[in-house]
Amino acid sequence: QSENSDKSSAESDSETEPEQVSVYHKLLATLKTSPESESGDDDESESEEAGESGTEMDSEESQENGEAEGSEEDENDMPDKEEATAELSLGEEQADGADMSCDPNHGVTEEFTDVKHESEFSLETNFIEEESGDHDADERRSNPFKQHMGKEMEEKEVERMSTFSKSSSQTKWPRLGQLTFSSTLEKQKTLKADKEFDVKQLHLHKPLEVTWPKVNKQLLSSLNKSCDSCFTPLQRELFCIMNTYRDLFYPERTALTNGEEIRLAYCLHALNHVLKANAQVLSNNAKRRDRKPGIDTDEYRDQGLTRPKVLMVVPFRECALRIVHNLISLLEVSSDKKIDVSNKKRFKGEFGSEPEEKPPNLKRPEDYEAVFAGNIDDHFRIGVAILQKSMRLYAPFYSSDIIIASPLGMRTVIGAEGEKKRDFDFLSSIEILIIDQADIYLMQNWEHVLHLMKHMNLLPLDSHGVDFSRVRMLNLNNWSKYYRQTLLFSALQDPQINSIFNKHCFNYTGQVAVRNIPQIGSISHVVVQLPHVFRRLEAESLTSVIDTRFQFFVDKVLPEYRDAIMSHTLIYVPSYFDYVRLRNYFKKEELNFVHICEYTKKAGICRARRFFLKGEKQFLLLTERFHFYKRYTIKGIKNLIFYELPTYPHFYSEICNMMKATDSGVDATWTCTVLYSKYDAQKLAAVVGIDRTAQMLQSKKNVHLFITGEN
């Protein structure tokens, strides 16, 4: 589908220049220009938004007189060359405070890494301390880490995983709901949810048994959540799955409700894995030191080809900050036993944020405030090394246990084929991959995620000083991808996110996916009286949907809105490439329209909103990404067209409810038209509910729904 998007964009945007440099260089170039078009004016734009109630139009009109002077609206968008690489370059607009360590002008070589503490945190030269080592105890009892990493697969099993389809089974858990268990190697044993368990049953590394209840209770009290156990019901069921080392897809993670308890749960799992793995290495170091000379054995194979074991992919620096704080809290057994954290001050300076003063009248939805809290720069990466009672931030990747990074941060270090300076060997032995808030990457750049997945668990090009006598056979056989656990968290189910879980996860232990179907759609939150017409388009295949939708819109929908009486028509376009295609068509047909996308400058936004409100322009093209990053209320909407169902279901009700912002009140002539196909089943169910979706997909007729307020 992405290939089709690229094709349709290239066909429609005649102004787009052909690619002249590598994708990587384009990325670096657009990173420098993309934020300038937006973030420099962000505060002023927010101030204007704050004054919407009465002064907005006056301030915009004065600005219009000073700047517009009949200029083309396009001048306020990014140059078309950058539009063509929009999917590649969408570094978040608000990334003003990016530190120089990730500045593309400085390149990866200028990145700060802590070399001072190298020997201190080296696994090769350290030995386990008796009082903190519980590795021998773990040897005597069956624990999930030992079971998972200790399994020796046979070639016929690997071949089976590559050729056979997965068998699956369903079950229902009290908190998670409907679960699908799938596996290739054996008939999936349905896992039962433990209603209650003792922390000691989880085989946590010794310090975590003490710190977890304390840290989690602090979180719950700060979130005003009460729980008698040391786990919330959600955490208990999620950790029950994580601790079996199965892959997990949970598509109901939201920043507003359960984001923090999920983050703490996967931090516990990742830290437990790292501590156990490092304890095994340090214990074996001591055994090797004390063994008789001349004795060679394979029993000390306890490492990967490179040291990094856990990769956490998060969208913003604020997320990385919270993860590191969680890890520190989980390592500190008591308040008087603080762990030593290297470069902590630098980390707080680069990943923290100063409280911003916002205009008093500026109101954004609660979910927006939760997602965009703190430092929202989306270009970063940091290595973390953990050794017993110490933590090293900014560790070089090849000396790190955990890497925390954004997709863009990974993309710029992995590079593109043909680039001289690129590196992905550090991904060769990742044992746990955590992708949090995956839905946000759909708004940033999904290609970065795909690029990362293609470079996971490949054989390294260099040895990086590894002692091959200590490397596990699974890594030497290039089977590490079959042992990697992937934890995928998202706010929604989306075909592209599902594809990551289905096509890039090969865990021999199997997969667990939460598959709850929405019974009531977001249309129930529409508070204005409005007829909703869902118009079905027939596409022969998934790859033809893009072109079919465009032709359907041009031939059957747009003619009904060309009449001047159908003024104040907002067209909501989720895909940027569809937006470019429509914009070019509207220009060609000389339609009376304005357009706003994520690259439009402040002056262009003000001008377009003013023209649209006053009826001087009949149509307004609006991209989903603009709405995601700004959440401005567009006034003056009388007719609404969803060119495609929104990615986030609650955006449907948000856009519809903008109609009540019109001063004239409810209008009997208001309309809402939605285009959909049979391939939009998931998005449709999230908007209208499962029962209506089933009826709509069975019938080939247009569906009319009338919403009379709170429904």
UniProtKB/TrEMBL annotation:
Residues 1-10 have a biased composition (Basic and acidic residues). Its main location: nucleus. Residues 1-157 are annotated as: Disordered. GO terms for molecular function: rRNA binding; U3 snoRNA binding. Residues 522-706 form the UTP25 C-terminal domain. Interacts with CAPN3; the interaction is required for CAPN3 translocation to the nucleolus. This is U3 small nucleolar RNA-associated protein 25 homolog. It comes from Nothocercus julius.
